[in-house]
Amino acid sequence: MNNKTRRVVVTGMGVLSPFGVGLDLFWDNLVKGNSGIKPITIIDLHAHPVKFGGECTGFDPDLYLDRKENKKMDRYTQLAMVAAIEAVKDSGLDMSKEDATRVGVYVGSASGGMATMEKNHAVIMEKGPTKCSPFTVPMMIVDMAAGRISIQFNAKGPNKSIVTACATASHCLGDAFRTIVYGDADIMIAGGSEAPLTTLGMAGFSSARTLSRRNDEPEKASRPFDKDRDGFVMSEGAGIFVLEELEHALNRGAKIYGEFVGYGATGDANDIVAPCADGDGAARAMECALRDAGMNPEEIQYINAHGTSTSLGDIAETIAVKRVFGDYAKNGLLVSSTKSMTGHALGAAGAIEAAVCLKAIESGIIPPTINLDNPDEQCDLDYVPHQARKADNINGVMSNSFGFGGHNASLIFRRYQ
After folding, report:
1. pTM for the whole structure
2. For position 312, what pLDDT does the model report?
């Protein structure tokens, strides 16, 4: 718990998604209810049972980063770097004018450089250990995106990488928020990045039977809260925020998307992959976030659900929302899962979806849950099916993220006043 003497606002956002590079492109497609899910082209999946996912359309790191340095970065780091560049540009910050020791970076990933590991393992098996790239370790380790971003922007403040599976980006954002509140930094670059569309990534999740197998209609495969859902759709991407202490932002005349007011983190202590059937861990994370924000449940108008399109997860989250929000859960609260359009970007998902929440505040539009054609009877909230909805009263929003291992995080943002 903190005393909130220092307020934190969001002044910049960078998003890389299956729609391509850029926050505006991302938001425009969500509002239109478009799906970014399609057959994967960056690897050969002819022998795999699942052949589709959320591939970052047209991503060319050489358009944004030094070509020579790109060869020393895994794709997940490249995605993170470009998202960070987009976020800092969006914020209007001139880092050369900032006290570098007051700028920190918290950026994580669920899996890190999986493609680098695969590639160099194959080289070792074929040509021997002496042919392994000397850049293998710094390319594959999970903290390298945070390290690279800190170098890019000369950020010498707190720097770390959090790994909590699909809650990674939300925990990075939450801890970055607290770092500013506690006075250890004035600016934090925070979020997550993921590049899991690899042979190992696709094979591993597919073998665990967590992925949808709708190869014949990939755009309809991600269907949160629908009775006919058959697993999630894996995606790559990155979401990076610039968080700023309020007075610092005001003094430079920054654009403010919203105020970061609440963060809750809990553990299920239940199962390595399955959530608590009664949604207990998720519910407690939401309750903690509300308490941290000093808000009543009725002050939240929209929740961006974790909503992965898995049988157990969607039901557990619905139960949790009803436990926390009571009668209001079915009488006024709007909930949607944008994973129905983007798929699940694992450790990047929390930041990508937090961006949705802030754009909802800014625009007064709630993006839909597409493919919700046959609602599960146990999923009985207003999930804004099929089409975006105008909602002029959006002041408080919540973003939920829940990860394998029982890691839960809820974030709350409020319209800045």
Report:
1. 0.97
2. 96
